[in-house]
């Protein structure tokens, strides 16, 4: 280094040998050769020079020497275009990285020698860059800012990333070093990131279009998740952290944002139909990352529920299973909302809205079938489920029931009364069991009684049957117990609702109706009976008896043999106990054959529903007339349709208006009969 120009100005005790040492040391560092002198001695020499007020000259000369060296490097390695063009991109990147690493190592070594200069003179002059920053500035100015070098470097990096995205293994440490170089030199964003994001956008736009055509939705969702994971891994491995947000946004936009509607149209119903919990969870997670994603998903989710539920409700051929299908569907959607959609309140509210919409598409029928379903479950009691299971089922039914628009206060009151009866019956039976234990002659029959309040429950046709003496005696014990606590009440036994568990030979138990019980107990007293003998002994009505015998002798579990054989029971048939009866279960349930509902019964049920609703109609008419005072018939009907939440026929509205006129709540205009006036 040429320090000779200012050497005569130094104090006499410094000789030319000191400057030769410094020159040799810096030259050795730049040429990657060993330093002949002690580093501590060199450091002390710089400190002494600074103390003699030559720091400005020392700093200026050091910068010049470093710049000369960098210029020599650019001439030697990069401006020789013929040489660099002969290298492939990967070899060029490695050469570039080696040049950068050498430069960093040299700058650090030079700074360690001139550290005193860096921490005193440079630090005190805020406009001067540090020795390290000077090294970066020189490398950026003379090497990286060269257009050919910069383009070749960025091209090579982008090529390596493209190879990795296509599945090949690359040298990540090389990219980490080179991208770190661009970041340190403060050219990362302008020289690399803009081109990188443009290429990424182009790649994923094409990939999204292609894969949406080639793959099904579950496979596509997993691919998107994998791509996002890969890009995040690149950020952690070699990209600058500042790239994370625009990079992830680019992938999400091209693979998700541009295809949201197509993904949901193509695959949401498939995922929901198949209860694909994993993919539904992934779908929600991915759509939550995209602007407007969850809102779009919510709309499709709501539409799916309306469509699927509408098919359940509006298919008369499936009425038999409607309520159970609704319960299963609600359970399934609840599970999706909780497990896959993170209990998002918006999705839960959308589900409720959708259920409320589709269940009211078909007037009256869902309410009618729900009432019958509740009745059948409560009749069966613990024959089909434990008390806890039954209670859960009834709770779920009530949730479905509440979606129906105003079935009428009386109807709702009846249903709630049915639930209340079942709760009170549990308490009564606890007290009755304690009462039985205190009796002098406890029964070997365990009796369970449900107390049903008349008016809440459907009307049952009274039927007198001949019970065994043990049952009659136990009935009287319960009657004495119950009326002792509730004087003034009347108990009416309903044999059509009774059921029992019978212990048979071979350690088997039969779960049967009371009618089936009475028939089977006869075979403890004899081997064979005619249908007439069974009717006389049990007192069961003829039609009910034939269905009972059919269930015992013609069903899957044939406890009785019928002679002659056949599917139907006829007068003159004879029955004997099936001694060859076998079954794999310990407790065998023999279902009673149900009588089909007649058209008259369906009409009667519909009429009862309307009777419950008529009070709602009356109240709405009076409320409207009280506010408007005078109104034409057509306007009144229009207002009623706006206010009533359940479907109603114009003829039914007319009947209610006439009834209110008869009861002096309103009157017709004397000159215009089609106009009404409110009567205060």
TrEMBL record:
Domain Cullin family profile as annotated: residue spans: 352-553
Keyword field contains Ubl conjugation: yes
GO annotation, cellular component aspect: cullin-RING ubiquitin ligase complex
Cross-referenced SUPFAM superfamilies: Cullin homology domain (SSF75632), Cullin repeat-like (SSF74788), Winged helix' DNA-binding domain (SSF46785)
PROSITE patterns from the UniProt entry: CULLIN_1, CULLIN_2
This protein's UniProt keywords: Isopeptide bond, Ubl conjugation, Ubl conjugation pathway
Domain of life: Eukaryota
Entry protein name: Cullin 4A
GO biological process: protein ubiquitination; ubiquitin-dependent protein catabolic process
Pathway: Protein modification; protein ubiquitination
InterPro entries: Cullin, Cullin-like_AB, Cullin_CS, Cullin_homology, Cullin_homology_sf, Cullin_N, Cullin_neddylation_domain, Cullin_repeat-like_dom_sf
Family statement: Belongs to the cullin family.
GO molecular function, one term: ubiquitin protein ligase binding
SMART domains xref list: CULLIN, Cullin_Nedd8
